Amino acid sequence: MNPYYMRPAPSLLAILLSYLLTLPVAAQTRTGAELRAAIDEAVASGGIPNAWWTILVQDAESGVPLYEKDTGRSFIPASNTRLYSSAAALDILGPEYQFETKLITDGIIADGVLHGNLTVVGSGDPVIGGRFTDGDATAYFRAWADSLISLGIQTIDGHIIGDDDAFDEEYIGYGWQFDDLPWWYAAELSALSFNDNCVDIRLEGRQPGMPASLSWEPLGTTYVTVRNESLSTGADTSVEEDYFRRQGTNDFVARSRVPEGRVEVESLSVSNPTAFFVHVLREVLLEAGISVRGRSVDIDELPVKPARDGQTHLFSHFSPPLADIVHPLNKRSHNLYAEQVLRAIAVQALPEADEPPAGSAALALTRARRETFGPAGMDTVRIQLVDGSGLARQNLVTSTMTTQLLSYMWHHEDPATRDAFWESLPIAGVDGTLSSRMRGTAAEGNARAKTGTLGSVAALSGYVRTAAGRVLIVSMMANHYTESSRTARLVQDQVMAILAQHEN
Questions:
Q1: How many CB atoms lie within 10 A of CB 348?
Q2: Model pLDDT, residue 181
């Protein structure tokens, strides 16, 4: 899908390691020396060219280290960054925190007409869409239409305005790669987000040589245009994905090759999620029978922003609790959710003198350093985080920092916060980004850990229970290698399997 993630084919050694991971570890370790030797052998056997490795394993209860390798060096954590953003959000906001989206008006309702504008005020809710509605992307919008009708509104005389001022104006994460931006995993950010800030393009292969059948959701919205340059190919061929969106526009080109009878669906990010949000909302209101005489407008497009004071609050929509939102954030490694949740830390906080602006990732990370990372024992001078998802290669942490964070959450004074964090982590061989990993080993169904992958970066950090019943905290990161990331992941899986079979 993205050339940035294309790596060399796995080596014969990687294939052999993959096979070995389906078998039990040959010898169970009993002593600390045997454990350290087994981990050393697993890392050495990977033979990954140019790799830097850091590994720290410690007892969850006592904090005593069982294995240490280059724990003071800073590494790019990739999606292990989400451990920091989700833990800080749960710690500072609490697992019951809910995003509130308000619908307000500067007008009055008379004779079925709202004489004025309808403004939607966002606070960063990342899950307005199909995630919690069985895939029904516009379910919440239809419910809002019903609520407006119940208030006696049949016609809106003004505009539908999207107020995204809870966040700053940085619509992508600091340091993100330009060529990632059209894809769903690098969707733009906004205090008003809908459908993961993406359109879902569907291509169905027809008779070879013909263009594939094209449609898109939600609602075939007119917010985007899609030029169909796709091609249907023979039924025995493979899908070849090829999409393009010119930066700053919502004009897409679908150039994919799709086999006859096959369906290819791809989520692609839109430009200006706030405008997308209110555009589709207006389409839903019209479909529900509410006449809208005005346009859908991003509040930043208005020459003068309307004051919120004196406006009438119509109703609010509340998100599921944060404990539910961090579940897909970590299980599925969802970048947008990580970024939105991080910024939520900065929405209700007023910055002190010389601090970054409200609603910014920078202010959120400042609060996180002060209120979570510092109390966790980290060296907050050395920790370098610039986004919430880990797409930025400027993020730098040590394995010591990550284990300190994991220990802090393991021992958290609030059981609900501890449980929400624990339940959000993928389970080896069972679900999320670990669903296909460590199968057939003692780590299957046992290890709970967050993955992380960028070009020449592989990370795995979390918890695993030994054969003796002891819970271990583990952080592993590999950087700068020139082999396939798959090989690095196999080494990490092997280490987890060794720890799971440790008899001490």
A1: 13
A2: 85
> What's CA 95's distance to the chain center, in Å?
17
Q: How many CB atoms lie within 10 A of CB 320?
A: 14
Q: How far is it, in rounded angstroms, from Cα 257 to Cα 255?
A: 7
Residue 9 pLDDT: 40
Superfamily of domain covering 98-320: D-Ala-D-Ala carboxypeptidase C, peptidase S13 (3.50.80.20)
Task: Note whether 129 and 284 are within 8 A (CB).
Answer: no
What CATH fold (topology level) applies to the domain 12-19+26-95+324-500?
Beta-lactamase (3.40.710)
Tell me the pLDDT tens digit for each residue of 15-50: 445 444 444 443 589 999 999 999 999 999 888 999
Interacting residues of 283 by C-beta distance below 8 A, sequence separation 6+: 219, 221, 222
Helix axes 485-500, 12-20, angle to 10 degrees: 30
* CA angle, 4 then 185 then 130, to 5°: 155
142-166 tens-digit pLDDT = 999 999 999 999 999 999 999 999 9
CB 33 within 8 A of CB 16: no
Query: Strands, DSSP E only, in 22-121?
Result: 52-59, 65-69, 100-105, 108-110, 113-115, 118-121
Domain boundaries, the chain: 12-19+26-95+324-500, 98-320
Specify whether the CB–CB gap between 174 and 394 falls below 8 A: yes
